[in-house]
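Predicting holo structure, magnesium ion bound.
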Amino acid sequence: MKFCRFSTDDRTSYGVIEGGVIHEIDKNPFCGNPTDDIKKAGKWTLEDVRLLAPVVPSKIVAIGLNYKAHAAEFKKALPEEPMLFMKPSTAVIGPNDEIIYPTHMSHRVDYEGELAVVIGTTAKDVPVINAPEHILGYTCFNDVTARDLQGKDIQYTRAKGFDTFACVGPCIETDIDPRNVRIETFLNSEKKQDSSTADMIFDVFELVSFVSHVMTLLPGDIIATGTPSGVGKMRPGDRVEVRIEGIGSLVNTVTEAKVFKKIWTKGG
Ligand code: MG
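Done. Tokens:
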């Protein structure tokens, strides 16, 4: 089942995508078991609506260095436990939205195509074997990163936290095996990343369990599960696509920040 969130002229709703048609549903997918007893309230074509990020998370927990080939690319040893950082909910954008390149602070902004886990029910201290019960589904994610600031700052907060640096969508797929799907990233139609989630160091169930032993995961929260090898820079005007087998394609464009006099200075 593919859940989406969309807006029309007068409102925002959740829906289920079937055969290119959106069936509006009368409750959100994060209340109990959404695959049972869903009432289909109305029908829309994809052309009639604007697809939004399929979820509004309270937090985004992201994983650094979770693909073996990506660790080798950066000449890093495989981590013994997942490395966590967070991205603010205010960074979220949806399909076809613009990534704002913060030229007032960064001159190196990268794409990172990732599989994102969307939490369905509250998870706290969950054993790995029970992790699937707390997952609603999976979506595509672009962990946009100001690479120069990631190197400069000790914390990742600034490098990962700019507005528009968390691209999510186009839908939440409930029925894939997240341990073995193909994940690709294209920049201006040129393939830059091509891997399988089978190359992950910690699989999604281990990650949900691990994170839940640190902080309570709430319905709608996102875990971005790390990026494969092949990360690289983007420029204003670029089009970036994260494509995951069984989910679909998340496409965004990059545009330059219009900051003018808003450049930050100490005491300014
Ligand atoms: Mg990442």
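The domain at 60-256 is CATH 3.90.850.10 (Fumarylacetoacetate hydrolase; domain 2).
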